[in-house]
Amino acid sequence: MSAPPRPRPAPPVTGRLVRLAGGRVTLRVGPRSVAVGVVSLLVVVVGAVVSLTTGEAPLSLVEVGETLVGQGSRSTEFVVLTLRLPRLLLAIGVGAALAVSGAVLQSLSRNVLGSPDVIGFTTGAATGALVAIVVLGATTLGTSVGALIGGVVTALVVVGLAAGRGTQGLRLVLIGIGVGAMLLAVNSWLITRAALQTAVDAQAWLLGDLSNRGWTQVVALAVALVLLLPIVLAGARRLALLELGDRPAGGLGVDVTRTRNVALLAAVGLAAAATAAAGPIPFLALAAPQIARRLSRSATPVLVPSALLGAAMLVVSDLAVTRLFAPVPLPVGVATGLLGGLYLIALLVRMWRGSTT
Amino acid sequence: MTRLLAQDVTLGYEGRTVATDLSVAIPDDSFTVIVGPNACGKSTLLAALARVLAPQEGAVVLDGHAISSYRSKEVARRLGLLPQTASAPGGITVGDLVARGRYPHQQLLKQWSDDDEKAVVEAMTLTNVADLADRAVDELSGGQRQRVWLAMALAQETPILLLDEPTTYLDISHQVDVLELLARLHDESGRTLVAVLHDLNQAARYATHLIALRPGGVVAASGPPAEVLTEELVTDVYGLACRVVPDPETGTPMVVPRRPLRGPASEKGARTGAADGALRADG
After folding, report:
1. Which of A8, A22, A217, B12 has its CA 20 to 30 A from that of B228?
2. Chain A residues contacting B, CB < 8 Å?
3. Hey, is the C-beta of B150 within 8 angstroms of any chain A C-beta?
4. pLDDT, tens digit (0-9, with 9 covering 90-100), for B30-42
5. pLDDT tens track for A7-60
6. Domain-by-domain residue ranges, chain A?
7. Could you state, in order of their start, the residue ranges of all structural domains in chain B?
8. Which ipTM value was assigned to this complex?
9. Where are the beta strands (DSSP E) in chain A?
């Protein structure tokens, strides 16, 4: 097993090396991941321009710009700062949070289906919100807090049940689906117990929607993103190594238990915060990171491109439901549910074919 | 002075103890091979030595300090592990997988250096996978894949390397390839190697130090293979009657199992008898 001496070959690894600060910082980046991120960002920007300028009261870009720097009229201020901007920012934030949460959970469970909406975390957040609305008569803020608590508690239960010997993977997914199914029943029961108007409110919340949300939700979600995203990004490389298996990762110097727990908590926090802000938005957390990873052809989770793609998908979905179905827009959850469902079917069909051939 | 030792460790998983009060010392610069029957705790011991399994009691000591007192990355710069089961992420290239061995030498903002590149190229050249650098690991044969994982462990450039059954799933020529490579690494680079092996004859041929474990994780004997590997030991540890003769190629001990005692029956008769027994047991 010896090889003849050969000229030094090109770097044996994929990706480009980016050297900054006089060589003190060297990063390895995949060109395709960068492309996915840049294109997604462009889509977000274009979507932002369209959503701020069009609608019932069309505005020019100049008018929007003036309003953003505080030079607008009263009516443009209301349209831009109260109606459109918080909604846009919420779409960006919720899309990014769900996508990153899905990317982390799919990586940890080494399973495509290990995303927060499939394994019950989002349903649990909904249960928390419904308890707040129906039982406690909570308003907007109380509903968000209920969703946050519901999501985190559900995650703890699912993870606790799935823990034990060996790696979780499929076990986490199956237990999560089971718990999610039970919570779905609880959710329906809660709605049937509610007074009519409460039930209507609760049902509206359950569809996942970006209307009737305001700066409170935007700020709360921004805080969650600022706190949790850096934690996730700092652990990205350890997350990639964990995909090799617990022992190989441990042998490479990854603190397996700590890495997993921190990533899990951050992912649950992001999913719960997103759900608290906008209600359950289905399938985005499943589809965005998968599409980003496939397009990037990356063997590691691509967190930043996932976040940007998730934001782009939700901005575009929300535009579609508000502009195509005006004047009675659909809740955006219906759009992502339809698209995501199609994607899930396509994915399962491909997985099934892949495993039989 | 031994850099790596286990002191009175009790090892196990939730609700199942594999070994109690087990002590082993890995002689510096040795090629130590751990042998023993199935489920005797060989791999568990190796995992504890590599710090990927925490002992329930006792301690693993690395360079004079409890291994649990080091930062994970610091341990990974001193000892590497080739685990028995590892899964390559779908679509990953050989070069990228080998490069992951460099993780303990890298930082968040320093993800690649010339040293990294040199170590990766060297490891791939040694294991003869340099030509496969751009190929996806999924597409490789079992033998190639095992060499890629070995390259990843070598790229880690640790003075101590632990290998859990590095020859499983390989045909005999690839087994010999891997073992010869390890022997060469041991001779030339002065690394301390610790391997779990199943084949006693290979263990005796390549080890400089042999540790034989009995079921229940008890050290039956340890020392140079010529002293450890005796007929009594094999009978004692494996419950197998055998002869130990000098390996005609290397002179190291070679285990030749005896046929179970039977009457003067021919080979054919013996086989029929065994088959009858199996049938009766089934019925």
Report:
1. B12
2. 1-3, 6, 8-9, 11-14, 17, 24-28, 110, 164-165, 234, 237, 240-241, 243-248, 250-256, 297-300
3. no
4. 999 999 999 899 9
5. 555 678 888 888 887 777 888 888 899 999 999 999 999 999 999 999 888 899
6. 86-347
7. 4-282
8. 0.85
9. 16-20, 25-29
